[in-house]
């Protein structure tokens, strides 16, 4: 324990001899009782000492010129810090009851009469010195206790934060584990259907109708797998800020109308009462990403609304915003889940998408794409079975005046000669058969070096080149083809599983004309091949 400061005793007397006698007497016991003795010759001097020090006891002469003992005592006790200092009055006159009363009223604790009897003085000051030392010890213990309490409070707060952070991490890990388990389930379902359909095609005695149905199943489930992969990649790109928007002025109402027409044409909204009220509103946006937002909101409404329910889609302008609202009469959203509907990797039991199948990331992607456009998305629901409303707000722009588009030229030519460079045997074989079935003259190569040789000997109009090739990759294939005068004019289309903006940049820098992300829809591939080969083909 730290060493305590010695208690101090103040002796106040205007008579020099009396002051010396008292201080000398007290000094005899100072070492034994461990205290210090200070002296003052007047009331004013005593007040100065009290301002500088704390005292265990004050021995105060009553009869002093100027400020007497009673006035000095009153001034000492008027100050908050010194109000509790015990004062012993010293007087040479026998005090009557009135004097004693006056002294006690001014804070005196006792009287001593001169000549002072040493034993009595010692007994009295010993009590106050011991009391002062005890009080000082208690104060220091209280300070230490307060400091310890502060440290414990800080430690407790830190531990509480660590516990909360650990619980948050555990919840996130649990949610991710559930998400991965669910992802495995979502991937296995279409893979199982594809595997069964492929096996069915190879069975003897299968009818032509059965083969056709199996093919449609394979095509449909392959598209479903592609959408799952696209959703995962899009969300990853959006969360990391790697989506680059191709922004142009567009009418949100027209874009939404096109999406709704697609839903009607494909029969996806047949069992629902689908209403629309679309007022024009122009925004600066990426049409593909805004269609993605619209589709996700419509899919969400269809998923959680029973057949026969109503879905209302509206667009309008409000101040500086263009607003899209999708309202349904479906299952609604519980109040405790409402703030989390746009979160990814939340608790599995709390996520709407997970109770009905799907990855549960569509609304997360909607929020991120909205933010990338400088907008916002909100969800509202009155509770379970009372429907829900999702409201998108995007910054409004003025209606641009655009020049009339030129009619696209349609070249008259035959089918282009195609070279396919693909290292995956199954993929190369199926792509070759498919292109051949559409009437294209196709040559194939299994790696980059063989592809370069085939390009020289075969002289194709167009080459489909996989990027991840053994030996030399697709980038190097494109660079060498462009460097050779015999092959520099071949149209080059990159086929890759990588779809980030950085991948597109590398593809174009290597010399490719187009960039397609696997799996490629056959109709899209045919369109790209035909549009890329708008030159006279080799006969």
Short descriptors:
49% helix; 5-stranded parallel sheet; 539 residues; 15 helices; 5-stranded mixed sheet; single chain; 4 domains; Rossmann fold; Heat Shock Protein 90; alpha/beta
Structural commentary:
With 539 residues, the chain is an alpha/beta fold. The protein folds into four domains: 8-116, 3-Layer(aba) Sandwich (Rossmann fold), CATH 3.40.50; 193-239; 248-395, 2-Layer Sandwich (Heat Shock Protein 90), CATH 3.30.565.10; 417-532, Response regulator (Rossmann fold). Helices cover 49% and strands 18% of the residues. A hairpin with a 2-residue loop joins strand 9 (310-318) and strand 10 (321-328). Helix 1 (16-33) crosses helix 5. The radius of gyration is 46 Å and the shape is elongated.
Termini separation: 103 Å
Poorly predicted runs are 346-357, 404-413, 535-539
Strand content: 15-25%
Q: What is the subunit arrangement here?
A: single chain
Helix segment tally: 15
User: Please, what is the CATH homologous superfamily of the largest domain?
Assistant: Histidine kinase-like ATPase, C-terminal domain
Cα-based radius of gyration, to the nearest Å: 46 Å
* Helix/sheet category: alpha/beta
* Average pLDDT level: 83
Strand order of the largest sheet: 2-1-3-4-5
Largest sheet: 5 strands, parallel
Number of domains: 4
- Inertia-based shape: elongated
Reading off the top of the CATH hierarchy, the class of the largest domain is best stated as Alpha Beta
Reported CATH architecture of the largest domain: 2-Layer Sandwich
The number of E-state strands comes to: 17
Helix proportion: 40-55%
């Amino acid at each position: 324990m730290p060493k305590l400061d010695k208690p101090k005793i103040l002796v106040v007397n205007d008579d020099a001899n009396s002051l010396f006698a008292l201080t000398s007497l007290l000094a005899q016991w100072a070492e034994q009782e461990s205290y210090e003795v200070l002296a003052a010759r007047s009331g004013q001097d005593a007040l100065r000492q009290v301002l500088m020090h704390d005292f265990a006891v004050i021995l105060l002469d009553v009869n002093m010129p100027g400020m007497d003992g009673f006035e000095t005592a009153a001034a000492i006790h008027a100050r908050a810090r010194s109000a509790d200092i015990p004062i012993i009055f010293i007087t040479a006159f026998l005090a009557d009851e009135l004097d004693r009363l006056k002294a006690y009223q001014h804070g005196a604790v006792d009287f001593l009469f001169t000549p002072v009897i040493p034993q009595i003085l010692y007994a009295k000051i010993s009590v106050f010195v011991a009391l002062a030392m005890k009080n000082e010890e208690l104060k220091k213990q209280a300070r230490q206790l307060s400091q310890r309490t502060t440290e414990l409070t800080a430690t407790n707060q830190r531990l509480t934060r660590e516990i909360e952070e650990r619980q948050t991490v555990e919840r996130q890990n649990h949610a991710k584990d559930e998400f991965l388990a669910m992802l495995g389930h979502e991937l296995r379902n279409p893979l199982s259907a594809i595997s069964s359909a492929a096996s069915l095609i190879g069975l003897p005695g299968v009818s032509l109708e059965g083969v056709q149905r199996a093919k449609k199943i394979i095509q449909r489930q392959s598209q479903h797998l592609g959408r799952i992969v696209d959703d995962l990649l899009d969300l990853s790109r959006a969360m990391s800020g790697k989506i680059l928007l191709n922004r142009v002025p567009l009418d949100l109402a027209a874009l939404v109308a096109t999406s709704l027409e697609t839903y009607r044409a494909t029969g996806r909204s047949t069992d629902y009462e689908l209403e629309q009220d679309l007022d024009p509103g122009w925004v600066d946006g990426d049409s593909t990403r805004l269609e993605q937002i619209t589709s996700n909101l419509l899919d969400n409404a269809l998923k959680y609304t029973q057949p026969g329910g109503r879905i209302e889609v509206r667009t309008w302008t409000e101040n500086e915003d263009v607003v899209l609202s999708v309202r349904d009469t479906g299952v609604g959203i519980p109040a405790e889940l409402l703030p989390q509907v746009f979160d990814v990797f939340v608790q599995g039991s709390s996520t709407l998408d997970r109770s009905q199948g799907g990855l549960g990331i569509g609304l997360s992607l909607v929020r991120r794409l909205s933010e990338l456009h400088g907008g916002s998305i909100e969800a509202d629901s009155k509770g379970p079975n009372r429907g829900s409303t999702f409201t998108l707000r995007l910054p409004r722009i003025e209606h641009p005046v655009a020049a009339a588009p030129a009619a696209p030229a349609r070249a008259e030519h035959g089918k282009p000669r195609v070279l396919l460079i693909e290292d995956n045997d199954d993929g190369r074989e199926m792509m070759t058969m498919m292109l051949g079935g559409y009437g294209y003259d196709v040559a194939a190569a299994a790696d980059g070096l063989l592809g370069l040789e085939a390009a020289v000997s075969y002289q194709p109009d167009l080459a489909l080149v996989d990027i991840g090739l053994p030996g030399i990759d697709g980038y190097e294939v494109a660079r060498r083809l462009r460097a050779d005068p015999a092959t520099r004019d071949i149209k080059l289309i990159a086929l890759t599983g990588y779809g980030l903006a950085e991948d597109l940049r590398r593809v174009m820098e290597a010399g490719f004309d187009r960039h397609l992300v696997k799996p490629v829809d056959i109709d899209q591939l045919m369109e790209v091949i035909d549009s890329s080969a708008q030159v006279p083909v080799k006969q």
